[in-house]
Amino acid sequence: MEVVPFERSFFQDQTKLADFVKNSDVIVHLAGLNRGGDSEIYETNTGLTKNLINACEKAGASPFIIYSSSTHVHRDTTYGRSKRDSGELLRDWAQRNSAKTANLIFPNIFGEFANPLYNSAVATFCYQLAHREKSEVNKEAVLPLIYAQDAARIIYNLICNPQCGDIAVESQEVKVGELYDTLTSFRDDYFRNVFPRFKSDLEYNLFATLLSYLWIENFPVKLGERKDERGSLFEIAGSHQGGHVFFSFTEPGMTRGNHYHTRKIERFCVIKGEAEIRIRRLFTKEVSVYKVSGDNPVFIDMPRFCAHNITNIGKEPLVTLFWINEIFNADDPDTYREVV
């Protein structure tokens, strides 16, 4: 499977858009606007769809188009009408051209690094909790949720096994008040240096989402010290669910890591020597750099979808303690090469 590169500017250039659709067997139509004035929302969403259809007709192309719609199609709002009418436009085009189209009706999608104060209550709550800000919580409202990686898997499976028509995507419904309380307890546990017990995959993914907002400002986190005549004791992590603890020796000038995870949560703690830990969110250029020392133990957690490494910048072997929330499985390592 080959991904055909696309740029937003193609929507302003029908020739480039036509070339794009001509070279595509499947198009995943995610483009849209959900904030703004009523006319802007409607014209933008239907206009993007019309541009795509016009390009297909100009190029004589009939790719399988997967349209990312929303449960708002069942509501009488401008955004809902724009998504509903865009779906109709695609269905009409498909019928005229003997083409295939699928209309994925998604619930609220949440995940790491989504824009807060925009269209995701989860993103907004996570951002506000990480920054110790107050939130407005409609406690009894019900929110249907799906994790972004699960949504991506649905799209991928549809590419591999095409289906046509409206496809209502299953969700997990939670009350907004319960969602906020869960995220708050995760935040409070985290700063007590305890990883929570997750009752479901939904809670696990909510925690990982929260962690992406705790980074960058809250790292590194100083370890609590217990000191007596015997010396000092530092607790690297507590967990209600276990995990995998290990340590490494790294020679001067050497680097470990240069990879990222999509599932795991990983903690670094230097206990002897001096190191530089570098973290970069995928598809960005900015690198967060942390210089740490065993003389002042701190921990730094690696958010999902962030390339990370650790380099010994001292003159002696570096001793690093690691904790990962699951035991390593060589058949499913969830470790992907990516240089920071």
Describe this structure in words.
The model has no long low-confidence stretch (mean pLDDT 94). The strands form 6 sheets. This protein has a 5-stranded antiparallel sheet with strand order 9-18-15-20-13, with no helix packed on it. It has 2 domains: 8-181, Rossmann fold (3-Layer(aba) Sandwich); 222-337, Jelly Rolls (Sandwich). The chain has helices at residues 14-22, 38-59, 78-97, 121-130, 148-160, 176-190, 201-214; strands spanning 26-29, 64-70, 101-106, 108-110, 142-147, 165-168, 172-175, 194-195, 221-222, 225-228, 231-234, 238-239, 244-250, 255-260, 266-272, 274-281, 287-293, 298-302, 306-312, 318-324, 336-337. It is an alpha/beta fold. The radius of gyration is 24 Å and the shape is elongated. 30% of the residues lie in helices and 31% in strands. The protein starts with 13 loop residues before the first helix and ends with a strand. Helix 4 (121-130) links the parallel strand 4 (108-110) and strand 5. Helix 2 (38-59) packs parallel to helix 3 and helix 4 crosses helix 7.
The N- to C-terminal Cα distance equals 26 Å
Instruction: State the secondary-structure class.
Output: alpha/beta
How do the strands of the widest beta sheet line up side by side? 9-18-15-20-13
Number of separate strands: 21
What's the pLDDT, averaged over the residues?
94
Name the poorly predicted regions: none
Classified by CATH, the class of the largest domain is Alpha Beta
Please report the number of helical segments: 7
CATH topology of the largest domain: Rossmann fold
Tally of domains:
2
The CATH superfamily title of the largest domain: NAD(P)-binding Rossmann-like Domain
Task: Give the strand content.
Answer: 25-35%
Shape: elongated
- The CATH architecture classification of the largest domain is 3-Layer(aba) Sandwich
**Major β-sheet profile:** 5 strands, antiparallel
Helix content: 25-40%
Spatial extent as radius of gyration? 24 Å
Order of helices and strands: HEHEHEEHEHEEHEHEEEEEEEEEEEEE
